[in-house]
Amino acid sequence: MPGTVLVLTIGPEAPVCDLHDPSDHDHAVQTGDGLSRRRIMQMLGAAGIATTAITATADPAMAAASDEAAGLAAADAAAYTAPEGLAEDSAAKRTALGWIEKNASRITGLNDEIWEHAELSLREWNSSLAQADFLRKAGFDVRFGTAGFPTAFTATYTRGKGGPVIGFSGEYDALPGLSQNKGVGEHDPKEYIHDPFAPGYGSGHGCGHCALGAAAAAAAAAVAEASRRHKLDVTVKFFGSTAEEQLIGKTYAVSKGVYDGLDAFLDWHPSTGNATGWGTSNAMTAVTFTFLGVAGHGGTPLGNKSALDAAVMMATMSEFLREESMGPSARLHWVINNGGDIPNVTPEIAEISYYVREGSVARVASLLDKVVAVSEAAATASRTSVRHRITSACWNQLPSKAFAELMYDNMRQIGPPVFSADAQRLAKELQSSLGLPESGLHDKIGTLSPPNPVFLGGGSTDVADISWQVPTVSMGAALAPVGSKMHTWSTASCAGSAPGHAAIRAAASYLAATAVDLLVKPELLAGIKEEFRKRTEGLTWKTALPEGYEPPMYEPPAWFLKKTGQSWPPENITWPPRRVVSKEKFASLGPALEPQV
């Protein structure tokens, strides 16, 4: 495929949430492969790629993620050495780190409170309040309803005038089906749903967002404290973000200008390693297909139109895209989230949701067109009708080499998380339960190395859209056992116990220390911003969300609206939403047959 563009991936692969998995946040941080030239050429051949040239005319978003776009020579992994001496042992930094140590029990207490709530996307009523209250007590002004989302908030602290504006990101949504008792080394759901026809588990923090938000809030508060004590001019902005697991909260907020005016943005995600890097992530579009048919008795099915049949056909046909329509960086995963309730009623409505991922928005759009065509074929074959709606969409992440190098120097100086014997014991028990080598938790700082020269895809993150507005750095701290993955019950076990507590303290320290360096060494911030300017030169970011997009929302309880000073509905959505009602007719069987005598 001449002209196909390859882009660099994070090596070590940076945490990205949904990066949820650098095997999928969608979140684990991994060490780069150090691929040989032979292996690279094998992969290029397997992908049918005739050239590795990264050209702005082919795909500007992927090109901007390359070091060449910033005027930097392509880094040789074997020869690269991370610079030292960027991070400064300043009095302000010691104050920030001291504040984190002094308030460690409060910080881990915030994590534990959010872990217990385990609230799903767009419904984080108690979790958002807990995070906001923590920052309010640290001297931040808190405003709920950011971009119209009831559980999103912006917390602001300002000292002096004219200082840089530093942003932090907090998340707090859990995942369905991942309930787990904390600190238990085998699968032991905290909430078991006793349904005789469909047993299941409650929600749980299998991605560690309870820890993510707690550590980021602690870092923001620590930077505010350092600025007070040492008279450093700064504005610290903390964005409490809803629905990260759906990649909705930040992408829409970015399109509404919520993150405008920032000078730097610091991000982290729980992971299986302690590392940072520069590179990119997959762009993604989330889309739900709704098939409408006609209900009828399962015992007399002739003439019925099964919407579930259509969804199953679509799922089957979409799998055939993998051989000839999906490159190595593409990801396509789906779930039937509405398939009927009982076998003797033909399902009149069925929904199947897809995450469509690729290296850039343009490549996602190409793959999405093929998925939509499959849905139309399934509807034709099943004699149903189909419609689709995009629920979220994000770009690939824009990297920052200079920012990653500064973060790495701080991580190296501070050192890895300090895991107790109990934390390591739990990790090994979990590894045993999962059939993994019992190596425990990662207790080193992963080496900073250039991204792999071939982008083979991975997770996605709504932080990516922020990275096109402001220089952004991401890092990961080990919360889950080596070899495990995010979005599992084992991560939920760690997130609310000793491994999570150690990761939170380390992550908060890395974030705060890096932010303080931007205040006391303004030349570092200037260099980071100059790299950002070069990468984005000649490229205009435009939201990947469709025209007229309205984000999905749930109506909040009255007590939450009262406590946060909001009214319902917000101006940016239609409420109540338009109902989805099938108007399909029974299928014709043709002329009636003459009776047989």
Number of strands: 13
Residue ranges: pLDDT <50 for 5 or more in a row? 1-56
Strand order of the largest sheet: 1-2-6-3-7-13-8
Strand content: 5-15%
One letter per element, helices H and strands E, the order comes to HHHHHEEEEEHEHEEEHHEEHEHHHEHHHH
Helical amount? 25-40%
Approximate shape = globular
Distance between the termini: 65 Å
Number of helices: 17
Instruction: Report the major sheet.
Output: 7 strands, mixed
Q: Please compute the radius of gyration using only Cα atoms.
A: 25 Å
Please give the oligomerization state of what you see.
single chain
Average per-residue pLDDT, rounded, comes to 90
Tell me the structural class: alpha+beta
Features:
597 residues, alpha+beta, four-stranded antiparallel sheet, 17 helices, 13 strands, 35% helix, globular
Summarize the structure.
By secondary structure, the protein is an alpha+beta fold. Residues 1-56 have low confidence and may be disordered.
